[in-house]
């Protein structure tokens, strides 16, 4: 799968429609690399000109700031801002709500001001323009709200619009939207041992999912993907419940 870097566009005197910010998980996590491929397949299918930074893309610094290392965050952020500004980047699309929140809300104070959208927002724009057309599926889907996408940035409807365009079988959990339950990964919790308690947060969320009894849990965040996947496996539900990013479900059902 060939993906052009921003340098390749510039060397041929072209400018991409968007810069795709792949993120650490989308680049290195074996499971989420599949999501990257699905999203790229959709972009290619719709003939959208996009570029990546390639080797010049670094971690946004989100984990460093959440863990309290402000010095490291600013080092990482300023390095990225230098590269983005060098190429006069205007619009960035990212699959990770943590990258999205950092690029959109935290980089401006350091001189990085861009139009940043989450991939569910971007795909929903394409849906509303009539460019993204998918076959209907009858699978029973529930959607897990990512904290940074939902409560952090009030993006609740775009993911649901996409799911409703795919299936009339969206079944919501009781704890959703503003009252949704965290997967347990945010705030750098994914990188440390859990505090003592009665139940792991991701297993508590699996209990919510089991009440709905879906075929597929749709997510829109690599952290949520990891935590919910782990919870499904720990409860021996992995043969019954699939965990997929929304873009994967779309890519599987794209109309030619």
Give a verbal description of the structure.
The chain contains 11 helices and 7 strands. With 256 residues, it is of the alpha/beta class. It folds into 2 domains: 6-123, 3-Layer(aba) Sandwich (Rossmann fold); 134-252, Rossmann fold (3-Layer(aba) Sandwich), CATH 3.40.50. Helix 10 (222-234) links the parallel strand 6 and strand 7 (242-245). The relative contact order is 0.14.
Question: What key attributes describe this structure?
Answer:
four-stranded parallel β-sheet, globular, Rossmann fold, alpha/beta, 256 residues
Short description:
The protein is of the alpha/beta class. The protein is built from eleven helices and seven strands. α6 (97-106) links the parallel β3 and β4 (115-118).
